[in-house]
């Protein structure tokens, strides 16, 4: 496991409020953060047969992942090499070939261009030069991730501590059953959700129901090198929760009955989307599942609403920056420090 970070008691200012709405900051983040980290994309069980594909957007970039004839998943930018048409709109399906909707250029499941209507007969046209632009795709524990940099570290290396921690928990799909998936849009910059997810200071007022179930004295929050903020939660009924935030935007919550996986994706500079998946223990009754889903979805709703409120205030320009608690917000301090390290020298 990575080392726990010990923070001093220095007063630390929050990152500037305009980082939460500036278009140039969002562009820099896409390049310096989202193209440099593995991004949750889908569930592995969504790809069963040759030709099963999912087209979706990751941090503003259209991506398509498809299962090849050899059973391997491949990921490509969902952009045609002719004049940047799209191969498929968002959604999932099955296909024998990937065909651009604009002029019909057609690619095989390995991304090679195999048909360019009319153009193929033209002198000097070299079909081999116009394959789809690949991106990395790897799966772990029933989850499919993509990475825009083909030279990046492996998914397992990037997940690091999470692989070790999750070896003590049930496996997704194998031990626990996939139960629910949500795609949740909200009106705040993705960092507002990250700031909020990395501290427990807001629990008593924002999540009254959940907070009343938690034994705060035996709940511990640690920041660990490598971009992890770990919450060891003890509930009043004696059960344990393990929540992990992995920078920049991946979250796992392991509870007695279920495991919840989330990632937060910037859609625009001021709006975001949460990918949200649940797996439940097979012994859970329908009533238990329903009750846990209502409670967990309420927590996400409460977080989403407070982040939207904060976002409105950040955008007014009245508030420029605040100060973080040294005892309550070390996770958020670490998250904001990682953001600064990644983007500050590009901001000029
Ligand atoms: S842009 Fe794809 S075929 Fe023309
Ligand atoms: Fe929260």
Please explain how this structure is put together.
The protein has two domains: 12-34 and 162-347, Alpha-Beta Complex (Naphthalene 1,2-dioxygenase Alpha Subunit, Chain A, domain 1); 39-151, Rieske [2Fe-2S] iron-sulphur domain (Rieske Iron-sulfur Protein, 3-layer Sandwich), CATH 2.102.10. Helix content is 26%, strand content 30%. It is built from eight helices and 19 strands. Helix 1 packs across helix 8 (330-347) and helix 4 packs antiparallel against helix 8 (330-347). The structure holds FE2/S2 (inorganic) cluster (FES) and fe (ii) ion.
Strand content: 25-35%
**Overall structural domain count:** 2
The span between the termini is: 35 Å
Question: Which molecules are bound in this entry?
Answer: FE2/S2 (inorganic) cluster, fe (ii) ion
Shape: globular
Q: Report helical residue fraction.
A: 25-40%
Could you name the CATH topology of the largest domain?
Naphthalene 1,2-dioxygenase Alpha Subunit, Chain A, domain 1
Going by CATH, the architecture of the largest domain would be Alpha-Beta Complex
* Uncertain segments: none
Strand order of the largest sheet: 2-11-10-5-4-3-6
Number of DSSP E strands: 19
Structural class: alpha+beta
CA radius of gyration: 22 Å
Residue-averaged pLDDT, rounded?
Answer: 96
Q: Report the order of strands and helices.
A: EHEEEEEEEEEEHHEHHHEEEEEEHEH
Characterize the main sheet. 7 strands, antiparallel
CATH class call of the largest domain: Alpha Beta
Number of helices: 8
- For CATH, the homologous superfamily of the largest domain is named as Naphthalene 1,2-dioxygenase Alpha Subunit, Chain A, domain 1
């Amino acid at each position: 496991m990575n080392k726990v970070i010990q923070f001093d008691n220095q007063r630390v200012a929050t990152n500037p409020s305009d980082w939460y709405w500036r278009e140039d900051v969002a562009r820099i983040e896409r390049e310096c953060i989202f193209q440099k980290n593995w991004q949750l994309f889908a569930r592995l069980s969504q790809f069963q047969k040759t030709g099963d594909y999912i087209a979706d957007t990751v941090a503003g970039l259209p991506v398509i992942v498809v299962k090849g004839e050899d059973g391997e998943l491949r990921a490509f930018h969902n952009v045609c090499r002719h004049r940047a048409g799209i191969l498929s709109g968002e959604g999932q399906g099955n296909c024998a070939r990937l065909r651009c909707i604009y002029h019909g250029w057609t690619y095989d499941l390995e991304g090679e261009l195999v048909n360019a209507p009319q153009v193929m007969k033209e002198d000097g046209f070299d079909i081999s030069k116009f394959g789809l632009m690949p991106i990395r795709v790897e799966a772990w524990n029933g989850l499919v991730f993509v990475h825009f940099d083909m030279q990046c570290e492996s998914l397992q290396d990037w997940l690091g501590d999470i692989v070790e921690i999750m070896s003590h928990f049930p496996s997704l799909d194998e031990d626990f059953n996939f139960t629910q998936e949500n795609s949740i849009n909200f009106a705040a910059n993705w960092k507002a959700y990250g700031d909020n997810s990395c501290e427990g200071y807001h629990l008593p007022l924002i999540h009254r129901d959940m907070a009343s179930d938690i034994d705060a004295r035996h709940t511990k929050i640690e920041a660990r090198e490598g971009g992890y903020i770990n919450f060891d939660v003890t509930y009043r009924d004696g059960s344990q929760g393990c929540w992990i935030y992995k920078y920049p935007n991946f979250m796992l919550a392991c509870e007695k009955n279920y495991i919840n996986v989330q990632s937060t994706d910037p859609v625009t500079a001021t709006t975001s989307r949460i990918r949200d998946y649940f797996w439940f223990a097979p012994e859970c009754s329908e009533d238990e599942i329903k009750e846990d889903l209502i409670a967990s979805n309420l927590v996400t709703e409460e977080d989403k609403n407070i982040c939207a409120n904060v976002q409105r205030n950040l955008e007014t320009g009245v508030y420029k920056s605040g100060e973080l608690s040294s005892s309550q917000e070390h996770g958020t301090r670490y998250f904001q420090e990682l953001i600064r390290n990644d983007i500050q020298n590009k901001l000029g």
